[in-house]
Amino acid sequence: MTISEIAKMAGVSSAAVSRYMNQGSLSLEKRERIKKVIEETNYQPSEYARAMRTKKSRRIGVIVPQLDSEAVPRILSGISSVLEKENYNFMLMNSNRSMKKEINMLETFKHSQVDGLILAASVLTKAHREALSKMPFPVVIVGQHTSSYSCVYHNDFAASYDMMKHLLSSGSKYPAYIGVDRFDKAAGEKRRQGVKKALNESGILIEQIPYIEVDFTMEAGHEGMEKLLDAGEKIDSVFCATDMIAVGAISCLQERGIKVPQDIKVSGIGHGVVADILTPKLTTVHYRYQTSGAEAAKLLLEMIESPGCGRKERMLDYQMMLQGTT
User: Fold this and answer.
1) Which residues pair with 180 in a beta bridge?
2) pLDDT digit string (tens) for 209-234?
């Protein structure tokens, strides 16, 4: 059924039906007649036609670096909760931590019928910035701080500083750090800087402690812990840049008969489900990933509804979860 047919049945003009659909000015009498026909015929307006009229698709593009992390599903849950209330859908793409794929996905979305984009970024390279600068719609970055775009991020520096301070104050004299690639400004560089400051305040240089960079997986954490132990370094605590790395490290320690926390204390960051199902429970930092997704979606919708409102940023707080592994 078309707008013309609705108009004919209601005895009004097509323009009147269009104004009704778009909540425009219309007499009460005509509004009631149109409403009655729509309810009797169960008319559903075409989404394509609506998009053509309003210039909005009510679709959002979302790019994530990996679906099998503990953070990403929580971020997506937050995004979905906000968009669903506002009658928006999102189109999801997973780059699988491939920078090349991520750039290609940005190009794909640039030519797609979406009203905005949320990028769950691990890095923002020159190629990323060039692609983002050409987007014809608003963009929000989640997970990284950037002065170029609206963003929602965590205080990685303070969180890692507090965690290393906790390890040192709990009696650790020989700490180690398993980090991730510093090319990742949040999980890599900022968390390392926080660790470095805490160590410096205790008279320790980060160059003096056992330190290794690994991937974001449990397997990588296991392998990294093996390398630290095989190097023969004296270690009584290990701070891991993520919970998944910490789980791998604990697995390695247990395989070697090293008790946690009696022999070596272990901590992480993220507070995913895995942290609370371990025995003992993992000492970690609770990040509000679901909130970050929700806030990113709210920011983006604000920008869509109010073009030219300017760049905004939101830094989320965190909570120390001091549990059994320290």
Assistant:
1) 214
2) 999 999 999 999 999 999 999 999 89
Write the single-letter amino acid at 77.
Answer: S
Give the closest residue to 98 by CA, choosing from 137, 145, 144, 65: 65
Whether residue 322 lies inside any domain: the answer is no
Strands 175-180 and 139-142: unpaired
C-alpha closest to that of 251 among 212, 282, 272, 295: 282
Residue 262 lies in a domain: yes
All residue ranges of the chain with pLDDT < 50 are 48, 51-52
User: In whole angstroms, what is the distance from residue 80 CA to residue 59 CA?
Assistant: 12
CA distance 225 to 176: 10
Nearest-CA neighbor of 264 among 249, 275, 278? 249
For residue 265, the surrounding DSSP H or E stretch is: strand 265-267
Cβ count within 10 A of residue 150:
22
- Rounded to whole angstroms, how far apart are CA atoms 220 and 66? 16
Does 324 reside within a domain? no
What residue type is assigned to position 88 of the chain? Answer: Y
Do 307 and 255 share a structural domain?
no
Show the DSSP H helices in 134-261 as ranges.
Answer: 156-169, 191-201, 218-230, 243-255
Q: What is the pTM (predicted TM-score) of this model?
A: 0.82
Are 85 and 206 members of one domain?
no
**Same domain, yes or no, for 26 and 65?**
no
Other beta carbons less than 10 A from residue 118's beta carbon: 28
DSSP characters for 160-181? HHHHHHHHHHTT-SSEEEEEE-
Residue 53 within a domain: no
Helix, strand, coil percentages in the chain from 3-state DSSP, rounded to 5: 50, 15, 35
Per DSSP, the chain holds a count of helices (H) and strands (E) of: 13, 12
Say if CB 79 and CB 296 are below 8 A apart.
Answer: yes
